[in-house]
Amino acid sequence: MRQIQHPIETRRRAGVLLHPTSLPGGSGSGDLGPAAFHFIDFMVDCGLSVWQVLPLGPTHEDRSPYQTTSVHAGAPELISLELLYRWGWLDAAPEADPVDPEANRFACLRQARAGFMRHARDADREALREFVDGHASWLPDFSCYQAIKDTRDGAAWLDWPGPLRDREPRALEQFRAEHREAIDQVVFEQFVFFRQWHDLRRYANERDILLFGDIPIFVAHDSADVWANREGFLLQEDGYPRVVAGVPPDYFSETGQRWGNPLYDWAQMAATGYSWWWERIHTQRDLFDLIRIDHFRGFEAYWEIPAAAETAIDGRWVEGPGAEFFEHMLARFGDLPLVAEDLGTIDAAVERLRDDFHLPGMKILQFAFGGGADNPYLPHNHVPLSLVYTGTHDNDTTLGWYASLDENAHEHLAAYLGPEATDMPWALNRAAIASVAHLSVIPLQDWLGLDGAHRMNQPGVREGNWQWRFEWDWIDAELPGRIRALLELYGRA
């Protein structure tokens, strides 16, 4: 089934991959404040027209945006305190707290809500009411979940008292009555997050910049989504998973990867017309112009691992919802501005599902060299309906990658790219921009020419990820012109 023209087909574009937490400024991390708007201005100067980010949800202690407490909510850490001060809801300009920036942020958010109650205009109060009404499908559950979690020192919902864990109506009613302020604070924070993001999106779209989001196919077990929708997941009576997600053993791992996410009860999802998923995609469409679906192959078939298994070896392939799922989404929305993350173990059935719904896939240049001419990631094998990257958030920076290559890969690069091959990362940047793919996205680290010390995530390593940030003085005054000239040369500016 072919949908209408995909958004990336309208013209050749180039973009940048940067999560907002990596922006300068903010309290403890980058946020949606002035630096985000300044970054859009920088993109305009460069001729870049797509800003790709990672999932925006509230994270757990490991800070991974791919294991969030909600598929709908925004991370309060991304709320700009500076903007709250400019709106008149904070009495004093926020000051950085190097000792405990997180505690300082949430103290300021509580002060901002008090300021809102005192000073907000009638239009602001009406906007809050409209926000609550417009997000009624998920906001009450998430705000209650987060308030319970906060009052229990961050404990996972499985460790809550039985009546709250199992959502007994009387227990929830009593909790809501006793903790109304805490719940209202969570609602207020979500209102602010969405308002700030929509302001940023409007600013970007007015400058012909598309915002590009990311949906992980699976969700964290400790999340409002699983707590409030247990019937949609393959769980035991006690709430623990019967089976969990992962990927099978491969060239990179003899034991595969055991991710631990609970798996969906797709039969139950189908019986409801995939309404849970429709609401999820609806929220993301409200935030983004393009949406990547992480681990797209899981819709065709996914690796099911017994929850008791310590590794992924004992898993098995189980058929996913396939075309029926996307037919439902296409019927509900009328179009699918989705991108298929089609990396890893991909077969003809996955490619057919992607192509039947006219979804672009991904080409990663760091995967292209060291093999034969039939490697699908080599530029001469690219197709227009695709996105080309030097690397993603899970890869080393291109400079770090190049330093780690063996002699065979270096020789392949030199033969393929010519004498310019040693000019990394710009040789690979140029190859991505020159590709026939409609959209080329390059991590900011590669635009800045940074080494492996600046990578965002190292899969399989538990600590030190998701913390990278840049500084404005790392951007040379000549960089925007250099990028723009490259984009103009290959018709992407």
Describe this structure in words.
The longest helix is centred in the middle third of the chain and has 27 residues, at 180-206. Strand 1 (13-17), helix 1 and strand 2 form a beta-alpha-beta unit. Helix content is 39%, strand content 12%. The protein contains 18 helices and twelve strands. The chain has an eight-stranded parallel β-sheet. A four-stranded antiparallel β-sheet has the order 5-4-7-8, with no helix packed on it. The protein has a domain at 229-359. With 493 residues, it is α/β, with parallel strands linked by helices. Belongs to the disproportionating enzyme family. This is 4-alpha-glucanotransferase. Its EC number is 2.4.1.25. It comes from Thiohalobacter thiocyanaticus.
Supply Rg. 23 Å
Main sheet specs = 8 strands, parallel
Low-confidence stretches: none
Based on secondary structure, the structural category is alpha/beta
Helix content: 25-40%
N- to C-terminal distance = 32 Å
Mean pLDDT: 96
Count of DSSP-assigned helices: 18
Global geometry:
globular
SSE order in H/E notation?
EHEHHHHHHHEHEEHHEEEHEHEEHHHEHH
